[in-house]
Every structure is written in C-alpha cells, then in structure tokens.
Specification:
Pfam families: GGDEF (PF00990). The chain is α+β, with helices and mostly antiparallel strands. The protein folds into two domains: 142 residues, PAS domain (Beta-Lactamase), CATH 3.30.450; 160 residues, Alpha-Beta Plaits (2-Layer Sandwich), CATH 3.30.70. The protein is 46% helix and 22% strand. The strands form three sheets. It has a five-stranded antiparallel sheet. A five-stranded mixed sheet has the order 7-8-6-11-12, sandwiched between helices. α11 links the parallel β11 and β12. α7 crosses α11. The chain starts with a helix and ends with a strand.
C-alpha cells in the first residue's frame, strides 16, 4: 500500500511546478556559471525558445544582446552579499528584448521590464543559484510616460501666450529675474529689447481686431525667426513684446533690433482682401550693476522704447 505522505509530497511538487510554469512573470534560474536551470512558460512564450533548448546553456550565449559585463557584476553582488538586487525599467528599459502582447500597449515595440535577482541557497545555506524574475511593466511604463507628457504639455500651456506661441508675461518675467541674477554672478553682458507695434489702435479701428491679431502673430513669427535658441522672447502685453539676449552687448542687440525693424517694414499683412503694413519701435537696455533689481533693468528698456516713440517711431533707442 502506497504511503499517502509520499503521494501528498508528489502532489505538492507537481503543484509547485505548475505554479512556477504558469506565473504571469518570467522566471529563470541560473547556476554560478550562468547556465540556465529553470525556464518557465512566460520565457518560452516571449523568447520563442523551448525549455529543452535552453537548459544548461549559458544565458549569454542564448541572448547575445545582454549587457554581459554589467549583468555579471549585478549577479556577482547577489552571490557575494546574499541580497536581492533590483533593476527597474527607468534604469534600463528591459533586460530581455521581448515584444509586449497587450492591446493597451499595441503601439509599443518593446516590453518594459522590472527585474529582481534573488539569491538561492542549498540546504547548507550556500548561494549556489540566482533566480531572475521578469515583470512586464509595459502598461505602467506607458501610463507613466503619458502622464509625464501631459504634465509637460500643461506646464508649457501655463507659460505660453495662446495667440503668439511665445512665452507669456508671467513666465517671461521669471526668466528676466533669473537672467539678471545670472548677470550679477557672471558679469557677462546681457541685453533686453522692448518693442511694440506703432499705431496699433489704428490698425484695429481700420481693419478690425482679427486683423490686429494677425499682425501680432506675424510679428511673433519674425521675432522667433530672428533670435537665437538661447534668447528668450515673450509677449509682454497687447502689442508689446520683450526679448532677453544673454551674453549680448548693447551694440550687438542693436544689430538684431535693426534687422527686426527692417524685416517688419517689408512685411505685408493681408486680411479679408485688404492689405496693410506697419512698423515697430524698439528700446534696448544692457544690464548694469547699477540696476537695483531686474525691474529697474526692465524700466530702463521701457524708457528707451518710450524715447523711440517720442522721436517719431519706427526706430531703435539705446539707453
């Protein structure tokens, strides 16, 4: 008569085996020579390699793309310290180059993975093997990336002028304060240009506010096309604009201002079968240690713009 205890032990072994094989995670066991000792169904399905073809094979011969030196270093620390080690998808997108198989992530070509390396001991307590658990984190990773992108877009919207696509006044003033503080630290020249459209009210009264908006957008495009990637332009309010020019002396800022002024002169706005031209006035102030703060620097540039208006408009004034 068979011993029921033996039957129970066999059943438990069978259940454990079935459980390991059907886990919704990858499970690999390696010996100290990095040879595969266990390869569950998750790994079979995603690698296309049957268990019979991988057992006793070096994991690095099976997957040439594995970062051998880096991964061996990780596993050696597990053998020596007898502690688990973790690899997140933020640290490394994946360990095994598997494709995701879920509808939610159908547009993603690669499975994002979290990996846990576990020390496995023999009855004497010696670490003889390492268990590698592969978690499919693709859904979580894509959700995280989408949320990060949405937050980035919201942040961009919060600092962007809707009509022109330039920085809005609030964000541009933050940049102005940072640039002034940078100037105080570095001593490098920095310039500020204030400009606005001459007789803008007349444009609105004659052609309508939509035509005025079109002129504002056209001027914004010209500004973006004339400044460097390091320069910071913003819509300061209505038809008034501001440009920060880091590492720029006043004579260099004047060159840019004049190029922009002449480009505006050559610009023709067409709206509802009517066309018109306009001009701009500009004021320039170079940052100075005599400025009490960034607002004082801004007021000097605004005074320079005011001088251009008083002197007949369509010109640049340095102050």
């Amino acid at each position: 008569m068979s011993d029921p205890r033996n039957a129970s032990a066999i059943d438990k072994f069978h259940w454990h085996t079935e459980l390991l094989q059907n886990l919704d995670v990858g499970l690999v066991v390696l010996d100290r020579d990095y040879r595969v000792q266990l390869w569950n169904r998750f790994m079979v399905n995603h690698s296309g390699m049957d268990e019979s073809g991988v057992l006793t094979q070096s994991i690095f011969s099976l997957f040439a793309e594995l970062p051998e030196k880096w991964l061996k270093g990780k596993m050696q620390s597990v053998f020596m310290l007898r502690n688990r080690s973790f690899i997140t998808w933020q640290e490394r997108t994946c360990l095994f180059n598997f494709k995701p198989d879920r509808p939610f992530t159908g547009k993603t070509k690669q499975m994002y993975q979290n990996v846990t390396l576990i020390p496995l001991t023999n009855p004497e307590g010696t670490v003889t093997h390492i268990g590698i658990i592969i978690y499919d984190m693709t859904d979580a990773a894509i959700s995280h990336q989408r949320l990060a992108k949405a937050n980035e877009e919201l942040q961009s919207l919060s600092r962007t002028d809707r009509l022109t696509g330039l920085n809005n006044r609030g964000y541009w003033e933050e940049c102005l304060e940072r640039e002034y503080n940078r100037f105080l630290r570095s001593g490098q020249p920095s310039c500020l240009i204030m400009l606005d459209i001459d007789h803008f009210k007349k444009i609105n009264d004659t052609y309508g506010h939509p035509a005025g908006d079109k002129a504002i957008r056209a001027l914004s495009s010209l500004i973006q096309n004339h400044i460097r990637s390091t320069d910071i332009a913003g819509r300061y309010g209505g038809e008034e604009f501001a440009i920060l020019l880091p590492d720029t002396a006043d004579y260099q800022a004047e060159v840019l201002a004049e190029r922009l002024r002449l480009a505006v002169q050559a610009l023709e706005i067409v709206y509802r079968e009517q066309s018109f031209v306009f001009t701009i006035s500009l004021g320039i102030a170079q940052a100075s240690a005599d400025d009490s703060d960034h607002d004082h620097w801004l007021r000097r540039a605004d005074q320079a713009l005011y001088q251009s208006k008083l002197q007949g408009r369509d010109q640049t004034t340095l102050l």
